[in-house]
Design a protein that fits this description.
The structure is a single chain. The chain has helices at 7-25, 29-63, 71-74, 77-101, 120-129, 132-148, 153-162, 182-187, 192-220, 425-430, 475-482, and strands at residues 105-108, 111-114, 233-238, 242-244, 248-256, 268-271, 274-276, 283-289, 294-306, 311-324, 327-332, 337-339, 344-351, 359-363, 366-369, 375-378, 386-393, 396-405, 411-414, 421-423, 434-437, 448-457, 464-469, 489-498, 506-507, 511-515. It is an alpha+beta fold. The protein has 4 domains: 24-220; 233-324, Immunoglobulins (Immunoglobulin-like), CATH 2.60.40; 328-405, Immunoglobulin-like; 411-515, no CATH class. The chain is elongated, with a radius of gyration of 36 Å. The model is unreliable at 18-26 and 224-231 (pLDDT under 50).
Length: 516
């Protein structure tokens, strides 16, 4: 990009670059949901690969009994499994290490979520700066070499070209962003939540490579036409399990551990009795328009022909999804009222609506959005009137009223805890002033003593009065305090106090002490 010389165009260019950077940082919740969906899909695929791979070794060993020339291939089976396990444990260990360093998981809306979901400093520090990313790259290349070692030398070149493990160590060198290495190109400034599918993808590469080598060995012992997976499970992988009325529910229905449409297993799939078109991967798409609100169930059936037993078996399973309507709720996170003079935290949730499309406004107060998606409300008097929060979003308008109240009266004490009654002469003289305490009030607020009058009533003497400004005992009031002897009575009366949001001072009553 050339740098413009005209000042106005230079300013526009700089603003454009800043906006682009901000947009890059503000990754929405929908994007993280997509990462989570991809990760879960890869985890399911890895489980299916494990199930498929588990059925092959015993058949290879059994088929190798046909002749001594096959023994060398049967001997490689356990080594292949060991290499796959080594790679999977390394990747899972690295994944768990990042999760642990990020504080593990927390519960959000009843679901488990990574605590460091959006943290990209963590991944950059561990994967790039501390070299964990380069360790992963070297381990994957090591895994590839180990898997290739189980293939006959004359077949290695062709086999390597199709082996799922493939580390691109060249593209990053041509990147215009001047990346330090492969790890920086792959993980640099990537949020932890976005890295999870990457780890699952490399785990999938390891398991797929294991499957490729096992199938190669199966072919060497003459098992290519005989290998049939006889453990099947119907799987439905919906894009969303909760959809809004009027939207389409879409899901992928497939047979776990199948060899695809082109295999000799003759896979057929149907949902609620309607046949589906099976693609080359042995999967089919099912879609239904969401009508009435509520739980919707559907039955998926897979029929499979086993070329070994010449039998056709059916596998049936039921699934469900929920249809809802767009709605908005507002809740004050601490009280069902708004208090004057403090910041009142508020949450606004709109089910099924992107946060960027939710517009929030307020009457008789001010509302502002925080960086974490919550809101802060401030209101002013007079107490008793109502404040209204209004929410506008596509397809829904909602409002809610809240009562405005002043902060409750604080409890006055002499010193940190003395509330009246009998008190020792020395203790009384050592306490320096009145303290207003907001008991049971969850907000960060502080009230201030404005004034009070200290009255000393000694035996057989007229009462003495000491007006005092502020919370600290001083002047005439301090002189009276120092006269205290057993048998005296002291009264702190007309205690005036002002709290945040108060237009005028409030009277907190009096404190009475008997000196002993």
């Amino acid at each position: 990009m050339s740098i413009p010389k005209e000042p106005r165009q230079l300013m526009i260019t700089i603003m454009y670059l800043v906006l682009t950077a901000l947009l890059a940082l503000n990754v929405s919740a929908e994007i993280f949901n997509a990462f989570d969906m991809v990760d879960k899909g890869l985890v399911k695929a890895n489980d299916a690969l494990d199930a498929a791979n588990a059925a092959i070794p015993a058949q290879i060993k059994k088929s190798a009994e046909k002749g001594q020339q096959y023994k060398t291939y049967a001997d490689r089976v356990d080594q292949v499994i060991a290499v796959s396990k080594e790679g999977s444990e390394f990747i899972n260990g690295l994944k768990n290490y990042l999760v642990e360093k990020g504080g593990g998981y927390i519960e959000v809306g009843g679901l488990q979520q990574l605590k460091a979901l959006r943290d990209y400093d963590l991944t950059t520090r561990l994967m790039v700066n501390e070299g964990k990313g380069e360790e992963l790259k070297n381990k994957m290349m090591e895994m590839k070499d180990k898997f290739l070692a189980f293939v006959d030398k004359e077949d290695q070149a062709a086999f390597a070209a199709n082996l799922p493990i493939n580390i691109d160590d060249e593209t990053w060198k041509k990147s215009t962003n001047k990346k330090l290495n492969w790890a920086d190109f792959t993980f640099g400034h990537m949020p932890l939540g976005a890295c999870m599918p990457i780890f699952s993808k490399y785990a999938n590469d390891v398991k797929s490579s294991e499957a490729a080598v096992l199938n190669y060995l199966a072919g060497k012992v003459g098992l290519t036409e005989e290998v049939v997976l006889d453990q099947f499970r119907v799987v439905s992988s919906p894009k969303k399990s909760y959809v809004i009325k009027g939207e389409k529910f879409e899901t992928e229905v497939f047979l776990s551990a199948s060899a695809g449409k082109s295999s000799n297993t003759g896979i057929r799939l149907s949902v609620n009795g309607a046949n589906l078109a099976v693609n080359d991967e042995g999967a089919a798409q099912y879609a239904a328009t969401a009508g009435e609100v509520g739980i919707k169930k559907y039955t998926a059936v897979a029929s499979v022909f086993n070329p070994v037993t010449k039998e056709t078996k059916e596998y049936r399973a039921e699934f469900e999804y929920e249809v809802g309507e767009r709605s908005v709720t507002i809740s004050a996170t601490k009280m069902n009222v708004f208090y004057m003079g403090v910041e009142n935290p508020v949450e606004v949730s709109a089910a099924g609506i992107p946060s960027a499309q939710v517009k929030v406004s307020m009457d008789n107060g001010n509302i502002s959005k925080n960086s974490d998606g919550t809101y802060t409300v401030t209101v002013s008097g007079p107490p008793g009137r109502e404040a209204t929060i209004r929410v506008n979003a596509p397809g829904v308008t909602y409002s809610k009223n809240y009562r405005i109240k002043r902060i409750p009266d604080p409890v006055p004490t002499l010193g940190p805890k003395e509330r009246g009654g009998n008190i020792g002469n020395g203790t009384f003289k050592g306490l320096g002033g009145l303290v207003p305490t907001l008991e049971g009030f969850d907000f960060d607020a502080r009230c201030n003593i404005g004034s009070f009058t200290l009255v000393r009533v000694a035996k057989r003497q007229d009462a003495e009065f000491g007006p005092n400004q502020g919370a600290k005992i001083s002047g005439k009031a301090s002189e009276l305090q120092n006269k205290a002897v057993p048998g005296d009575k002291y009264i702190f009366q007309d205690i005036k106090c002002k709290c945040p949001g108060d237009a005028i001072e409030r009277n907190l009553g009096q404190l009475v002490f008997d000196i002993r």
